[in-house]
Amino acid sequence: MHFDFSAALTLATFVTGIISGVYLLLQIKNKDVLDERKEPLLVEYSKSFFPVLLFVLVLRSFIVEPFKIPSSSMMPSLLIGDFILVNKFTYGVRLPVINTKVTEGSLPKRGDVMVFRYPKDESLDYIKRVIGLPGDKVAYFDKYIYINGEKFNQDDLGLYQGVGQGSNMTNALHKLEKMPNLEHEILVMDERPSIEGETVVPEGEYFMMGDNRDNSNDSRYWGTVPEANIVGKAFMIWMNWDGGISWSRLGTSIK
After folding, report:
1. What is the distance between the alpha carbons of residues 25 and 16, in angstroms, rounded to a whole number?
2. Are residues 206 and 130 part of one domain?
3. Are 71 and 80 in contact (CB under 8 A)?
4. 3-class state of residue 16 by DSSP
5. Which comes out higher in pLDDT, residue 59 or 87?
6. What is the DSSP code string of 114-144?
7. Looking at the annotation, which residues are catalytic?
8. Which residues form the domain of 127?
């Protein structure tokens, strides 16, 4: 069974807030009586935890949320064991649990690294790069991306040297992919067959791909991501732990 931390946090905040609030109203109404009694343990705990839970709920729901990278699909940009921060208001603030947008933000841009709820199982969070925008014709052939007929060129950076849990990617082709107004690194395995084809991105949806092109479960396999599934924009690596701390990655911005 999937544990929904957001739902649990929201429920805990609501329950402790109700208990604290009800007891406060009773104190005001029956001040003389309640002042002489010891607070029930449940009330004492609720009053202690409510402000902390409320702060965490507001922080991770509306401002920034931490995630851990569990797979190699975004190498070399993101490594296994990276702990990242995701901006929750760039694309518009959403209410926790029900995910209803309450403020308008900017639209995702091509090249953004975005966290979203996996369309085939919305209990799972995925992280990929925005490749196709609504209305784009996206094609992928011979390890190259084409957007509306325009090919994204790649510069050869040599052979990749993997580290830690990503060491199995050693000797993959390390390349610099050139999008309009953005360059970012990718990994390609020439000997591994890739799924190829082209599609038109529906309105209100996005075509997502991992930077580790031949080791990524992305829109090439299961389709586009609806705008309603967006969680936020990844912007910083705050720690990496893969058998030890990688100090060089601390505070690195995500491009």
Report:
1. 14
2. yes
3. yes
4. helix
5. 87
6. EEEE-TT-TTSEEEEEEEE-TT-EEEEETTE
7. 73, 128
8. 69-253
